[in-house]
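Let us work through a complete example step by step.
Step 1: write down the sequence.
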Amino acid sequence: MKISQRIPLLQDNHSHPYLYATLSDCLDISNVTSKLQALSLITGSLSDNDVSVVIGWNNGHFDFSDSELERFPPLIIFNLSLHALLMNYSARKIVARRFPKLAERYRDQKWLEKNTSLALNFLVDIKGCSPGKLRAYYDFLARSGVWRAAEMSLKNEEWLNKFFEANLAERAIFWCDSESFQRMSDAGQTRMHGIKLFADGALGSMSAALHRPYLSGTEGILVHGDEDLRQIISKIYDMGKAVAVHAVGDMAIDQVIRVLETIGTQRCGLPETRIEHCQFISKQAAVKAKALGVILSMQPNFSFDSVCYRERLPEEYCRLNNPFRMLLDEVGYVAGRDLVFGSDGMPHGVGRALESSLFPPFPGQRISLEEFIAGYCMPDMRHGHIDIMINDAIRKVDTQVTLI
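Step 2: predict the structure and record it as tokens.
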């Protein structure tokens, strides 16, 4: 069966457009599954700048040895998740000049998870971003069907001002970490919608905190203890800002909800609170989150983590990933109200988002077109629209974006 329909442009509720604009001219090897091909592409893309940066490395496909990296001039390779990186010796020497702790401890995954903002700051510092570059990236997003994109990792007012210089402030919703927020002026703080923090890591770095070890025996990482997390979230509420907590694994999700229950009891309810990703949320945890009024901000494209990370996930976790039908049908979450969708930029665009929603690896991950529109689209078509053709027989979606 084929279905044709016109839908609004997307509102991506979780992304990092400033970072992705900064990295837009870096080599991206996210679609490369052969190490030989990756090494060949890296060889052909070496920059004339001090350090070459490569993004999109999926360590589920291959790893790089130190000897392979040392063949190159200064080189840094970021994991697809942006939660792990590799550097050769000549790159470490350069990084050490401005980010000595990062150069010293980048292989320490627990340290890196606690200092994710530092790692991303360093990445932007190396590459740099201008208002023109930011504007060009938002033009790319629009052509891909995305009109508005939440900026989840704003670091300072310099970044914020570039959105205004590029006339993009109305196309972004601004979140930052607590330290960045406290360094901002009153005007900068007023423009921040909320503050984001991390409870665990990512599947790409095997640091998302699961109740079971990964198949390799690696255990995930909880960034904070319960009491530390309670104090951090409570202070954010005291600042009068919304809270977004990154929690991928079921252990991290359970911890966040446990802490939120304690805070909710103390405060007689919670201000606006989101859990980001929550890929392995259980029904029990979802019921508690729903009762607390917690919004779940999830990524339909991450349903394919059940396929690309099956070499590291216990079998039942592949099935439990992104349990949208449980959330919508059994717990009572409502798309667009307390369940919202985004991409995390992995990748941006309506095509992958729709196919991941309508044709995921497991039936429990499916999102209907109506739910997709409610949780992912702009409220109207005044900036443009997307004509879609859904072909159920071949599990394919064709899209045509029209901008106004």
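Step 3: interpret the result. The mean pLDDT is 94.
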